[in-house]
Amino acid sequence: MDEKEHIFLLEDDLSFGAVLKSYLEINDFRVTWVDDGKLAIDRFRNGSFSICILDVMLPNVDGFTVGTEIRQMDRSIPILFLTAKSMREDVLKGYQLGADDYITKPFDTEVLIFKLKAILKRHNGSTVKNDDMFSIGSFVFDYKLRTIERESWQQKLSPKEAELLKMLCENQNELLPREAALKKIWGDDGYFTARSMDVYITKLRKFFSGDPSIEIKNIHGSGFLLEVKKMQ
User: Fold this and answer.
1) CATH for 6-124?
2) Coil, helix or strand for 105?
3) pLDDT recorded at residue 127
C-alpha cells in the first residue's frame, strides 16, 4: 500500500489488543486502538478511517452498539466484528447491523489480514484479483490448496468441488449458468452430469451451513447463485 489504510480497532483486552495492533502495523496498516466502548464514538468521530475492527464483548458499551452508532455516522465504512461469540443469533445480528465480515476468537492472524485486504479491495473498487484466494462470508477459500477454512475448522475439497466453488466465487451474487459450469468442469451438459453437479452443490451448501449469511441458490432452469448477504 502506498498510503497505509487506517484501522479503527476497538478491543478491551489490553494484552491481546497490544499484540493485535502490533501485528496489524507490521502488515503495513495504520492503527488507532481504543480499549473502552464509552470512548469509541468520540475517537471515531475525530478521525478518518478505512475500516473498523470491533470487539463485541466489552464491559461498558458493547461492540454491536458502537457499530450501530458508527453506521449512523458513516454508512459506507467497512466493519468487521471480532468476538468470542459464535452463536448463530450473534452472527446474524452482526450482519443485520451492516457488518462486512465476522471473525471469532481464537483466529488465524493471516486469515484476518486476508479478510481485511479482501474487504478493502471490494470497498475501494479495486480491480486487482487474487485468482487463488476468495473470502466467502466468514470462510476463506484457497483454490490452489483446495481448502475452505473458518477459525480452526478446515475442509479439503475434491478437484471438481474446488472448480465449481471457484466459478461460483467468480460470479458471487450473480447467476452462474448451469451449462457453463457443466461444460467447463465436466465437458458435457447432459442429464447425468447435471445430476452429478447437483450432488456437488448440495455438498458445498453443507460445508457453508455454519454461516447464515451464505446461501447457494438454485435458480430454476438457469443455474446457481452464490449469495453472501450484507446490509447496505
Assistant:
1) 3.40.50.2300
2) coil
3) 38
- Strand arrangement of the beta sheet that strand 214-219 belongs to: 175-177, 223-228, 214-219
Q: How confident is the model at residue 47 (pLDDT cuts 50, 70, 90)?
A: confident
Contacts for 132 with CB less than 8 Å, ≥ 6 apart: 142, 143, 144
Report pTM.
0.57
3-state secondary structure of 141: strand
Contact between 135 and 191 (Cβ < 8 Å): no
Q: Which one of 1.10.10.10, 3.90.1570.10, 3.90.1150.10, 2.40.40.20 gives the CATH number of domain 133-228?
A: 1.10.10.10
Instruction: Return the beta strands (E) in 84-208 as ranges.
Output: 101-104, 133-136, 139-142, 147-150, 153-156, 175-177
Set of cell numbers at residue 53: 475492527
Looking at the chain, the domain(s) classified CATH 3.40.50.2300 span 6-124
Q: What does the buried/exposed string (b/e) look like for 55-69 if buried means 16 or more CB atoms within 10 Å of the residue's CB? A: bbebeebbbbbbbee
State the maximum Cα–Cα separation within the chain, in Å, rounded to a whole number. 61
Q: Where in the chain is the domain with CATH 1.10.10.10?
A: 133-228
Query: What is the Cα–Cα distance from 213 to 230, expressed in whole angstroms?
Result: 7
133: which strand partners?
Answer: 142
Tens-place pLDDT, residues 136-193:
888 889 888 899 998 778 899 999 999 999 999 988 888 898 888 898 898 887 888 8
